[in-house]
Write a structure and sequence with these properties.
Radius of gyration: 16 Å
Structural class: alpha/beta
Low-confidence stretches: none
Number of helices: 6
Shape: globular
Amino acid sequence: MPSESKPRIGVSACLLGEPVRYDGASKPHAWILGELAQRAELVPLCPETGAGLPVPRPPVQLVRLDGAIRARGVEDPERDVTDRLLAWNRKAEPLLASLDALILKSRSPSCGLGSVPLFAPGGEERDRVSGLFAAFVQRAYPALTVVEESELEDETARAAFLRRLGLR
């Protein structure tokens, strides 16, 4: 199949083996790098490095403050990177508009899809929400197929994902 006819799938760069996580590590996903890479054009993206955050970097967590969700430092709650991450979301719109699907890293404060712990200012976990980038995508691109890598762990889920993209 020629490259131009393959679906374009945005993938959290850490799942493609790029060392972009806060701790300088990656989380390569065998099925994405193997079978899916043969069937689709994989487009790496990382909202945190895209926003200019360094690798490694202090970890952040999502905190509800005054009704808004903020990305704040775990060890240093005064470190707030929310505005940088939200600015990158807007810059990513041309890329997002060119994608057929998106596979995001679960539990990431940027990319998690309903799996990210949300904390109160005092440190107590209150809920599970989508990361800042994932929530933006859900609002701005409701027709885009978006999954977490954890949703692709079994063959049935993988087959359903491939069917949605017309690959099965």
